[in-house]
Structure formats: structure tokens, C-alpha cells
Design a protein that fits this description.
The chain contains 7 helices and 11 strands. It is α+β, with helices and mostly antiparallel strands and 204 residues long.
Length: 204
Amino acid sequence: MMDLLKPLKVHEPNSFVIEPLKNKDVASILKEGCELLESFNIKYWLSAGTLLGLHRDQKPIDHDTDIDIEIEYSSQIPLFLEACPFKLIRTMKKGPYYMQLAFISESNIIFDIYVYYPIRASYINWNDHGIMFYPKSLIEPLSSISFDHKEYASPNPDSYCQFRYGADWKTPRSNKDSWVNDANHLIKKDEIIKQLKFYKTTYW
């Protein structure tokens, strides 16, 4: 069982440069990474700006800086790590449990994976900004979205984008903000601390 009190440990073994995806061959890196996940039977879905761009614009967002993937925890993750052809640039763990795996391709495209854990009626991810969550009903059953002649697993795109970005998700933005500022499914760390202090003062 996961110890929720264990601190997060972040490891960044290799330096990297963040660049916009505009004019990059996103399709080939997305395909290579997702097909490797599929080969290990790891449940994944496109997420965040990647799903938003492919659904709203039928292409990656030019000023986005990574490919966003979310997966359900699997015992196959260590094997995937060993087999992945991309360079590992970041891991985040709570005890032995992975929360994030980020890689970069030779063409300098970041393939960013967040790991979610099914807990009761939700999927949960602990990270250095707080806790991200989805109701299971948003993820199950998965749908799919087509890009460059391949089908990729995804939540229902309309429902996901509404939940993740809010009612104005159909309106493109001219620049990329930090994902923390537009993630409606993130309970920020300072809010968690504030709630814990309230409960401690009120009930403990």
C-alpha cells in the first residue's frame, strides 16, 4: 500500500532544452512512444495540451513544448523504462511508486508521462505541485482519437477538455502558460496544506 506521507523524490539525470513543437515531427515520436506502451500492455491515454490540440485543431499546438501522456500504474513500468529509446530526463516517485517519467527524443521532443493510481472512484497522481485527479467515469471506458493514420487511446475528448481546461477550452491561446495555471483537475499543494491546517485546528 502506498504511504501517502512519504515525500516525493525528483531525479533529473540528464540536462535538456525545452523547445516549441512547431515544425517538429511530433507524429513519429508520439507513435513510437505509445506503441511501446502498448507492447507492454500499459493502459495509457493522450492528455493535456496534446489531446486538446489534436481534438480542437486536428494537430499539435505550435507553442506546446511536449507530448502529454497519462498512464495507469502498471508493474510493467520498469520494463518500459529499460526498453524506451528516448533519453530519460526526469523521474518523480513517492516511495517506490512512479508519479512522472519524462523523456526526450534525439529530435528534442519531450515525451512526458504522468502515472495515475486508481483509488476508489478516482484516478490520482501526486506531484510536486499538488494532487491531480480524475473521476473514473471520465477515463473509463477510454475512447480514441486519430492522428496521422493511427488511433490513440483517449478519454472522451469533449468531456476531458471541459474538465481539464474549463468552459473556454475551444478558444486558442497565443502563448503557453504553465500547466499549473490551467489545470482545473489540480489541487495545489498550498491548498492541501491550508485544508490540513483547518482540519487540525478544527477537529484534531
